[in-house]
Amino acid sequence: MATELTLANLQQRISNLVSERDWDQFHSPKNLAIALSNEVAELLELYMWSDEPRKPEEVDKELADVLYYVLLFASKTKIDVLQALSEKLAETEVKYPVEKFKGNAKKYSDL
Ligand SMILES: [Mg+2]
């Protein structure tokens, strides 16, 4: 039976993948942040010079690469990424109240 797809299970699979290959020695937070940035750039590259992806079949793979490094970075730095996201969403909800920002893409400090 397949393991349930949860963030915790995926983080455990990533941890297993890394430890089985002895890759942790290469995973300083700085190196992981660089790798994350590279994966974001690979996602962006698919859209270079076009509003549509050059290779649509690659978008989910690049997005998965981004999430892989987000989860690996979170594990390495012991950040509870779900809690961090929840707190950030709460901040954003306060900064961008619906009554002021519905249909408005301006930055909160520019309004
Ligand atoms: Mg990639």
Architecture overview:
This protein is mainly α and 111 residues long. It has a domain of 70 residues: Helix Hairpins. The chain contains five helices and no strands. Helix 1 crosses helix 3. The longest helix is centred in the middle third of the chain and has 18 residues. The protein is globular. The chain starts with 6 loop residues before the first helix and ends in a 10-residue tail after the last helix. The mean pLDDT is 95. Magnesium ion binds next to helix 2 and helix 3.
CATH topology of the domain at 8-77: Helix Hairpins
Strand content: under 5%
Task: Please state the structural category.
Answer: mainly alpha
Q: Fraction of residues in helices?
A: 55-70%
**Biggest sheet record:** none
Distance between the termini: 53 Å
Mean pLDDT: 95
What is the total tally of β strands? 0
Unreliable runs: none
Name the shape in a single word. Answer: globular
Which distinct ligands sit in these coordinates? magnesium ion
SSE order, one letter for each helix or strand: HHHHH
Number of helices: 5
CA radius of gyration is 18 Å
CATH superfamily of the domain at 8-77: MazG-like
CATH hierarchy class name of the domain at 8-77: Mainly Alpha
CATH architecture term of the domain at 8-77: Orthogonal Bundle
In short:
This protein is mainly alpha-helical and 111 residues long. Helix content is 61%, strand content 0%.
